Amino acid sequence: MFLPNHHRDHCEPLDPVDAETLGAAAAEEVERYLRFRANHAPTPLHALPTLAAELGVEAIHIKDEGFRLGLGSFKALGGAYAVIQLALEEAGRRLGRSVDYAELHSSVVRTVATGMTVACATDGNHGRSVAQGAQLVGARAAIFVHSGVSDERVAAIARFGAEIIRVDGTYDDSVAEAARVAVEKGWIVVSDTSWPGYERIPGLVMQGYTAMVREALRQLPEVPTHVFVQAGVGGVAAAVAGHLALVLGSRRPTFVVVDPARAACLFESARAGHPVRIEHGEPTVMAMLECYEPSLIAWRVLSRVADAFMTVGEDDAVAAMNRLARPTDSDPAIVAGESGGAGLAGLMRANADPDIREALQLNEASRVFIINTEGATDPERYTALVGMAPDVVATRRQGADV
């Protein structure tokens, strides 16, 4: 399904709070923080010239977040950044002075952080980031996981010393339970989704993602004309679209939000003209995107700067994974998890429909930017869907980074 953005706020300026959260100065602050992370390095940007020729566009570039901070997902940028910001702020309150990132690993910050417990709900990747951030500063982490989160992803979170709390039901059920227990125990919720009265911390999480966009703009040979980004609650899509709109202005690319057809909360919100909660149905293979209610901040941003919303099916997502794993000619082999290739799935689905292609003005002059938001965060599941283990695909990598 495909839906142009007809919301009354489309193309209106961002809310001032969102503009401050997602603008150039905010992204610079995130990048300054990353310089104090021991394993930080910009993730690669790959050109896919053969695929671009097959789809009849000028260029396709993909930012590969499978290499981000040892966590294999763009979410390494968000949750950990928010936890560390909160720890520094609390240390500042205790000391009566500003505490800088340079003191991140100091005994002063660790002493304060040991009295903090951060909590969140997760499909897997956000929880790993929050747990890693807590471990870095010495805080406790309580991570709520719903019944659809695989044992392999749970083990990856627990590796950072987090307490794992199982919740029956969906991701949205785990969000509600995390919020309830955190109030009861005095924990700090570090969620990647927002609701009425709870926006600042999810805003920090989204702010963390802007570093990825800033890197990409430096790596890209030209400003893209089209961007396809996948969405769960919408945080990463809003961060990318919002930052591009703020720094590029009238040169901003056409932005398309891609939802799983089985969890299309942003698509349905766009159709309704306001945020809606959709019914839980059959699970989607795109597990990291299986969300049934959008983040209010994300919707507020996307209603203004997204140009279209679309859905992709289960077969589309698996086809994108396999296309990236088995490239032709000079295109590199890329390990993309079940949710990681959904943006590419959106591009391929849009390109196959002449009406959508025309609506987006997708043509031989188009320069498309997409993001592989995760690598094989569940290697067993990846192997089953692709027919090759992720380390085998990685050894087949060829082509050149941009």
From TrEMBL:
It comes from the Bacteria. GO terms for molecular function: diaminopropionate ammonia-lyase activity. Pfam families: PALP (PF00291). Residues 40-373 form the Tryptophan synthase beta chain-like PALP domain. Its EC number is 4.3.1.15. Keywords: Lyase, Pyridoxal phosphate. It is an enzyme of class 4 (lyase). InterPro entries: DiNH2opropionate_NH3_lyase, TrpB-like_PALP, TrpB-like_PALP_sf. Signal peptide: none annotated. Its cofactor is pyridoxal 5'-phosphate. NCBIfam families: diampropi_NH3ly, PRK08206.1. This is Diaminopropionate ammonia-lyase.
